[in-house]
Amino acid sequence: MRTRRELRRFIQLPAKLYAADQSFVPPTERERREALSPDRNPCFEQSGAQLFLAMRGECVVGRISAQLNRRGHDSATGHFGLLAAQ
């Protein structure tokens, strides 16, 4: 993410995708922002993460994160998460 706006769009995408699903309860934006903040989440002391948005024109249509645990027993293995897409 390069900007605060991109991070906000990343965080808000699932709520937009599942707005019609009465069973979906999104986490608060504040909780997601803190979880994705290297300054507030201790996981970032040993891990790195990159967040990606999939765009169709000006519209966000998907998101994914990529993580790498630098101190794990297999520090060359990456993981994907926070996947949401139309």
Characterize the structure shown:
With 86 residues, this protein is of the alpha+beta class. Helix content is 24%, strand content 34%. The chain has 2 helices and 3 strands, in the order H-H-E-E-E. A hairpin with an 8-residue loop joins strand 2 (59-69) and strand 3 (78-85). It is globular, with a radius of gyration of 14 Å. 6% of the residues are buried.
In short:
The protein has 86 residues and is of the alpha+beta class.
Supply the helix-strand structural class.
alpha+beta
Rg over CA atoms, rounded to whole Å, is: 14 Å
| Fraction of residues in H or I helices | 10-25%
Q: What count of helical segments does DSSP give?
A: 2
- How many β-strand stretches? 3
Average residue-wise pLDDT: 91
Order of helices and strands: HHEEE
Q: Can you tell me the residue ranges where pLDDT is under 50 for at least 5 consecutive residues?
A: none
Principal-axis shape equals globular
Map the helices and strands.
Layout: H1 4-17, H2 29-35, E1 47-56, E2 59-69, E3 78-85
Antiparallel strand pairs: 1-2, 2-3
